[in-house]
Design brief:
heterodimer, A: 116 residues, mainly beta, 4-stranded antiparallel β-sheet, 11 strands, 0% helix, B: 113 residues, 6-stranded mixed β-sheet, 5-stranded antiparallel β-sheet
């Protein structure tokens, strides 16, 4: 299993540009989520999905869109990039809510985004 | 307001000694806690977890302790090894919000040979 994969690894954007960060998992996990990591602030939840066709907002959703058309894929779209969105983005997945042990999330390697 | 706090940004320990990383939380709805380890340019990797019905969980050199009354958890690494040098994040999940995780700011552990 490849686990959770993310592309691209690194991206430079100009203010106002749009782009999609790709995330895929091959573990048949129901739950997928996007986090951003900023220095000293840990990881903050952007959006999450509890299954195909279902998405919801996390702590910092503004400026981002998501969709979940398949179990495997969960892309994150930046509609109009801003310098404040410079960050490292991590995608994660886990099984559904059947028991406490299934809350463990598995992370991809991350996408470093620089917005100029 | 941060609901999960790691008040020590960094910690330096000698190889072979014990490393103790601390984490405090404010939300009494949190019922599941996890520790992740992160190396530079990689994603966080799951280390160990604990449910609120327990006060201790061990996995090899790693032990997590939970003090619910104090809203405090700690990760003990014994003995510490240079390969343990990484950033450690604690995370918490509430009992009414599925698998959503709230992370602390992280503690950078440096284990000196």
């Amino acid at each position: 299993n490849a686990g959770v994969t993310q592309t691209p690894k690194f991206q430079v954007l100009k203010t106002g540009q749009s782009m999609t960060l790709q995330c895929a998992q091959d573990m048949n996990h129901e739950y997928m989520s996007w986090y951003r990591q900023d220095p000293g602030m840990g990881l903050r939840l952007i959006h999450y999905s509890v299954g195909a066709g279902i998405t919801d907002q996390g702590e910092v959703p503004n400026g981002y869109n998501v969709s979940r058309s398949t179990t495997e894929d969960f892309p994150l779209r930046l509609l109009s990039a801003a310098p404040s969105q410079t960050s490292v983005y991590f995608c994660a997945s886990s099984y559904g809510e059947q028991g406490a042990g299934t809350k463990t999330q598995y992370f991809g390697p991350g996408t470093r985004l620089l917005v100029l | 307001d941060q609901q999960v706090k790691q008040n020590s940004p960094s910690l330096s320990v000698q190889e072979g000694r014990i490393s103790i990383l601390n984490c405090d939380y404010t939300n009494s709805m949190f019922d599941y806690f996890l520790w992740y380890k992160k190396y530079p340019a990689e994603g966080p990797t799951f280390l160990i977890s604990i449910s609120s019905i327990k006060d201790k969980n061990e996995d090899g050199r790693f032990t997590v302790f939970l003090n619910k009354s104090a809203k405090h958890l700690s990760l003990h690494i014994v003995p510490s090894q240079p390969g343990d040098s990484a950033v450690y994040f604690c995370a918490a999940s509430p009992n009414n919000a599925g698998n959503m995780l709230t992370f602390g700011g992280g503690t950078r552990l440096m284990v000196k040979p």
